[in-house]
Amino acid sequence: MSKIAIDIMGGDYAPDEIIKGCVLATKDIDSTLVLVGKEEVIREKLSAYTYDESKIEIMHADEVIEMGESPVMAIRKKKNSSMVVGLKLVKEKQVDGMISAGSTGALLTGATLIVGRIKGVERPAMAPFIPTQTGCSLLIDCGANVDAKPQYLEQFARMGTVYVEECLQIKNPKVGLVNIGTEEEKGNQLTKEAFKLLSESEGINFYGNVEARDIPQGLVDILVCDGFTGNVILKFMEGFGKWLLGMIKVEFLKNIKTKIAALFMKQGISTIKEKFDVAKKGGAPFLGINGLVVKTHGSSKSQEIYSTILQTEGFIKENLVEKLKAKFEENIN
Amino acid sequence: MSKIAIDIMGGDYAPDEIIKGCVLATKDIDSTLVLVGKEEVIREKLSAYTYDESKIEIMHADEVIEMGESPVMAIRKKKNSSMVVGLKLVKEKQVDGMISAGSTGALLTGATLIVGRIKGVERPAMAPFIPTQTGCSLLIDCGANVDAKPQYLEQFARMGTVYVEECLQIKNPKVGLVNIGTEEEKGNQLTKEAFKLLSESEGINFYGNVEARDIPQGLVDILVCDGFTGNVILKFMEGFGKWLLGMIKVEFLKNIKTKIAALFMKQGISTIKEKFDVAKKGGAPFLGINGLVVKTHGSSKSQEIYSTILQTEGFIKENLVEKLKAKFEENIN
Q1: Rounded to whole angstroms, how far apart are CA atoms A324 and A163?
Q2: A254-273: buried (b, 16+ CB within 10 Å) or exposed (e) per residue?
Q3: Predicted local confidence at residue B69, as pLDDT
Q4: Separation in Å, CA of B212 to nearest CA in chain A
Q5: Distance (Å) from the alpha carbon of B238 to chain A's nearest alpha carbon
């Protein structure tokens, strides 16, 4: 039976919402959850709930890594933080996966330094799914590598391919390179060189360049880019979507007629909002780490923690990390 | 009295819509328009309209630069193209400005090679306004410099400052650096170095980093970034906005009730759409060129050509290029 460590102290709503999410998940998982954090706090919060006690263990850790801290310093100095203790459990294979809603930078640094990389992967990547017209696309990388080299992008494509095959059960998923034009010769130095590598790489179903304008069409299953570009796309989508929906709300509230319109469109608007609802989608594993480390949003509440736990159990059952390793060992041998 | 050259052969709807836009503009401008392109075609198309003939001149040019052509090759080989002939008119000061809806790459290359750069500007930039909650922000650069150096970004900030002061009559406009975090130490190598330069640069009202998520809030008047990032933001906004509004349309068409809602919300939706309507906004001058060269959308129809002509006349009256030159001469001396 598998075990999943949860960083109880990471995230905007820690520890209350994280613990609540764990309790919710106990009903629907086979795994045991290892709650990592201040033991007395965890015990006190848990006492408010009724749940299957065989599914929850506690691992004491009395330090907390805060959002503003320098990732490297925090990981090095706070040896007894919930995040570092959780990552060590992964490293020592005492758990099969670990979830945190804490600082992305610290978690990535910690995962790389403590758990280590898969052989053949130069840089781990953060890769969430973004909604598209036809479903969703994996956007890799979204911030782990802000100064990328062409070969990183090729590795992202390979990692993304394994992940999407597992997650979405899409055989031979299509990989697109985010670029400023569709023609081969378009782009900056990075994308021009990455285009060549991706074209020549075996085991990648390379579609070609995808202009940012066409991203919402869902032309490809995997969108490859450097972490700066991916982060800009991800965050702009969030901010711009919120603004547009906000403008529509203002118009709906204008007068009696538009308020009636709002009533008639209630279902429609929630259908659209649901498409962008991150809470149901859970977290994103750091691809390329030699162990399962899943980052979930800093603003996660219990529902998102619940989803991320179920998702993580799925990754464990599917042997995601082993499959990624196999893909890269193939290339090394 | 000023003169404006128009590339009649550039753009998806050339020459018909370009000529129609020119005729429309004759009613509302003081300038004379110099229509550059195949004389017989221009004469034939013009014969369909009644207009003040003293306001239109024709300059024959029998070649056309197509969208797919290599910019450098096209500019070098097609000496008698409407674009090259128009740019030469600017260089020789026979006109006070030039407008084209043709290939952006070719127009930028041509402007740089034929008209030349302002002293002190290493790279000209393309800078359109993007809509925000509070009005609009200038996004500089949007594709002219896909591999930028930190000092280019500092120069973009200075050019943007002059342009926004002129265009929007905002004194001492706020400049933000597009980045993946708000803290000074966040970003890639380019933005980290640019942050320092922008902080130290005199005559720039530097706000700090702006995350892509916050761009729609309109926190700053000018958003500085490399051309790759700017192009991604601009095009993603276009594609994502279209998709979101398309989804809303689908929901409005679902049943009788939602169709009534659509009727009640007609005004509201068009208010929102207007915010994103490029046709009314006109084109964008290449900032840093030693003459006025204005690029308008490839998909421009007569209404956008009309707007761009009026806008260009405004730039001439405001002495935009002279003011930009003065700003950079100041720094050289």
Answers
A1: 8
A2: beeebebbbebbeebbeebe
A3: 87
A4: 5
A5: 6
Cβ <8 Å between B232 and A268: no
**How many helices and strands, by DSSP H and E, does chain B display?**
12, 12
The residue of chain A with its CA nearest to that of B265 is: A258
Spatial separation of the C-alpha atoms in residues A109 and B93, rounded to whole Å? 58
DSSP per-residue codes, A121-174: -SS-EE--EEEETTEEEEEE-SSS-SS--HHHHHHHHHHHHHHHHHHH--SS-E
Structure tokens belonging to residue B121: 């500007």
The model's confidence at residue B143, banded by pLDDT at 50, 70 and 90, is: confident
Sign of the torsion angle spanned by Cα atoms B108, B112, B114, B116: positive
Residue B330 clears pLDDT 90, i.e. is over it: no
Q: Are B83 and B102 in contact (CB under 8 A)?
A: yes
> What's the pLDDT score for residue A333?
55
CA atoms of B63 and B38, how far apart (whole Å): 8
Rounded Cα distance, B162 and B220, in Å: 15
How far out from the chain centre does Cα B254 lie? 38
pLDDT band at B150 (very low <50, low <70, confident <90, very high): very high
Rounded Cα distance, B68 and B106, in Å: 10
Stretches where chain A sits below pLDDT 50 are none
Q: Does residue B61 carry a pLDDT above 90?
A: yes
Beta bridge partners of A34: A5, A57
CA distance B227 to chain A (A): 9
For residue range B113-125, what is the model confidence (pLDDT) as tens digits? Answer: 999 999 999 999 9
Residue A332's pLDDT is: 62
**How far, CA to CA in Å, does B312 sit from each of B29, B118, B286?**
10, 19, 12
Q: What is the mean pLDDT of chain B?
A: 94
Give Cβ neighbours of residue B4 (< 8 Å, ≥ 6 apart): B31, B32, B33, B34, B95, B96, B97, B98, B99, B309, B312, B313, B316
Quick one: average pLDDT of B79-95?
97
Instruction: Among A188, A192, A275, A299, pick the best mutation site for testing chain B contact (most B Cβ within 10 A).
Output: A188
Residue B282's pLDDT band (cuts 50, 70, 90): confident
pLDDT of A67 reads 83
Do the beta carbons of residue A300 and residue A308 sit within 8 Å? yes
Chain B residue with the nearest C-alpha to that of A145: B188
Q: What is the DSSP string of A80-133?
A: TBHHHHHHHHHHTTSSSEEEE-S-HHHHHHHIIIII-BPTT-SS-EE--EEEET
**Between B227-252 and B256-264, two packed helices, what is the crossing angle to 10 degrees?**
120
Q: Which of A212, A244, A252 sits opposite B244 (nearest CB)?
A: A244
- Identify all chain A residues contacting B237, using CB atoms and an 8 Å cutoff: 236, 240
Mean pLDDT of B159-180: 94
- The H or E element containing residue B131 is strand B129-132
Token reading at A129: 């799914």
Q: Which residues of B touch A178 (CB under 8 A)?
A: 232
Contacts of A183 in chain B (CB under 8 A): 68
